[in-house]
What does this fold into?
Amino acid sequence: MTFRDTINAILNNWNFHRDLTLDILENLSEEQLNLTVGKNMGTLGAQFRHIGRVQTQYIEAIENKKLGKIQEEYKPEIAKSKKELLDYLQNTNERMMGFINNMNDEELQSLKIDWTYWKEKEMNLAGHLTALINHINLHNGQIIVYLRTHDIPFPKSWAAWGL
It folds into this structure.
C-alpha cells in the first residue's frame, strides 16, 4: 500500500463522517438551526458553522505546513442559513480535496505539519487528517445531543450508528 493509498483510505473515512454531518443539515429546517441545548453550547446552526471552521483550520495547516489561528474571515451570520451552511461546508471540502489531490506522491509523503499551536511537535498528513476526523466526530456527537433533546429524527444514514 502506498502512502497515497493510505491518504485515499483516510479521505474515504472522512467522506463517510462528513456525509453524516451533511445528511443531518440537509434534513433540518431553518428554524431548527436556532435550537439550543444548554449553557455555552450555542445554536445548532453554530455547530455546523464551527465544523466548517474546524475543517478550514486543518486545511490552512496543510497549505501552510503549520497549524495556527484560522485566517479565514469569521462569518457568524451563516449559522442561521441552511443554504449558506451547506455551501460553506461543500466549498470547504472541495478546497481540501482539491489541494490534497493536486499534491504529488512525494509531497504527500514528505508533508509535515507543525502542531505546536496545540502543544504537539509535528504530524504527517495521515495523522493530521485522522485528527480532523476525530475532531469532526466530537462535533457530530454534540449534534446528536441537539437532535435527541429536540426529538428530531435522524436521517437513514445514521443507522450505521444505531440512531
